[in-house]
Amino acid sequence: MSETPKFTVIDRRKFKAEDEQETGQQPSPAQVEQGGGPRLVPNETKHEVAPISQESPKAAPEKEAEEEMPSAPTAQESTEQKTAYDASAQRLEDLLRAQNPAMGAQPPVGFEHLVQQFYVSAMLQMGAGAQEGQRPRVDILGARASIDLLGVLADKTRGNLTETEDRMLQTVLFEVRMAFLELTSMISLQSVQPPPPPPPGKR
Question: Is the confidence at residue 198, as pLDDT, over 80?
Answer without folding.
Answer: no
